[in-house]
Amino acid sequence: MYAQLRETAAELAGVLWREHTVYRERGGGVVIRGEHVGRWISLAPTGGKDQALLRAGRLLDGGTTAPARTEVVVDLTVPVAELATVCRRMLAEVAAAADPDPGPSRAGRPAGERKRGKARRTAGSRHTGAGSWVVLLLVGVAVAAWVYGAFGGPGH
Fold this sequence. Notes:
Blueprint: H1 2-16, E1 21-24, E2 30-34, E3 39-45, E4 51-58, E5 70-75, H2 80-98, H3 111-119, H4 130-152
Helix pairs in contact: 1-2
């Protein structure tokens, strides 16, 4: 089964990416890494004849692999072009899941809306900055000096 997976993975890698690495997993499967796109695909045996578990995920900083985002059982007897179509769909899902803001692009928004979006904060997200602490400290010192001079100073 490994020979069939390896052969299919090598053909599939050539169709998907010009730059790729194909290697064997510990569990007997084969991984195709596309470093330049930050994605990986693996083919693993399922126990069924001519079937494989196809999984896709992304590569993390440092080259480690993130857990699979999507997986499907495929028939290895279909043409490689059909497998590549399935892989491209899975890779698109992985890319969409990795995008932190799947909403509309900020490029098409008016400048005023962009500025309002940045300025708007919720009460729970505000933090007191260092400058604010200095001002509060100086106000506290001024109030303490006034109280000491008015009520507790020498001669009272």
